[in-house]
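Hi everyone,

Forwarding the result from last night's run.
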Amino acid sequence: MKKLSIFLLALVAGAGTMFASDTSVDGIWYNFDDEYLTAKVTYQGVYYNSYPDRYSGEVVIPSSVTYNDQTYSVTCIGDGAFYECTGLTSITIPNSVTSIMSQAFQDCTGLTSVTIPNSVTSIGDYAFYGCSGLTSLSVEAGNTVYDSRNNCNAIIETSTNTLILGCKNTTIPNSVTSIGEMAFIGCTGLTSVTIPDSVTSIGSYAFAGCTGLTSVTNYATTPQSINSNVFYDVNKSTCVLNVPMESVSLYQAANVWKDFGNIVGVDVPGVPSSTPAVYTNPANPAQKLIKNGNVYILTDDKTYTITGQQVK
């Protein structure tokens, strides 16, 4: 995980300067915009990791805040606002917030659940990266940009059916067509994941740093074309890859997927299992053999593939 964190810091180093504030109201730090009368939640000090204990326990962000006799609407959680606040256990985000910016909650390992209000229309990169303690993710009903359909414990971009953020208890709905870039990045508590056959694309670093993964089930009959970094830092030599029975050979030949040391053919739920009825001899009935995830037919002391090609 250390090398992944170094990589991440390199990515964001040129993303722009983050500005903090020395203005605190009721224990929360803000930047105030006097023109639009809005407030952004931020961090204390010059750098976003100057005071890692600035927020801890349960934090409730108000929808508005008064400072110097002026009332401001809280509309944004700024870049790195809660960065590395490992003592943060609970966060309440008001319906006034429309934007959660980059790295806002990065490495808040004590955070266990997040509810995105229906007002939020933008979530920045790495916003919840490294929140390995997350067990629950939800989006309030009525949000026009994001949803958590079927109680999936994930955040989905509604218009594109793209899962943009998951956690260790996520169930990917079969209406999702894409797993976004870095959707599960750094989710060390994720031990298994099932990718439905509706998923046609998986973004870069989607499962990078998921060092606890021991099982990946992919029901796509044709392997998705993925970047080599999708499973960066995952031990593919020990992680089991379950795929449709008829697709084992395709996965064994596909870039990245072929790197899994144990590819196993399984039946896809809802799809009837096919039992080949070829090459049957009454004196020597055919038998089905599963070897290294491939299906073969044994008859007359010969071995055939299910398409009829003799292999020995």
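The CA atoms of residues 205 and 229 lie 5 Å apart.

Cheers,
N.
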